[in-house]
Amino acid sequence: MDARNNYGVCGGPCQHQRRVGLVLWHPSAQNVLLSAGSDNNVIIWNVGTGEALSAFTLPDMVYSGCWNWNGSEVLFTARIDRFDGLTP
């Protein structure tokens, strides 16, 4: 059984090539989820349709992240002890 298809996050082939270590719901938009994997990819998903809304590749693996209050920016911490911010 493929759990990815049961939850509808990947409608087609998944875009993460390695383990996903961070999953964050958008603070104000419905059905929007951010995932970050050990492949350094950050993907923002529409879980209602299963499509990727945007994708970013960061220089290092993401350890944690946080949306700002309205979801217009995301702040990440990475293995190299620095903060990276993105505007999706």
TrEMBL record:
Organism's domain of life? Eukaryota
Q: What is this protein called?
A: Coronin
The record's listing under InterPro entries reads: Coronin (IPR015505), WD40/YVTN_repeat-like_dom_sf (IPR015943), WD40_repeat_CS (IPR019775), WD40_rpt (IPR001680)
Q: Spell out the residue ranges that the record assigns to WD repeats.
A: 16-55
Gene3D superfamilies tied to this protein? YVTN repeat-like/Quinoprotein amine dehydrogenase
Tell me, what is an example of a GO biological process annotation in this record?
Answer: actin filament organization
List keywords of the entry alphabetically: Repeat, WD repeat
Q: Which GO terms describe its molecular function?
A: actin filament binding
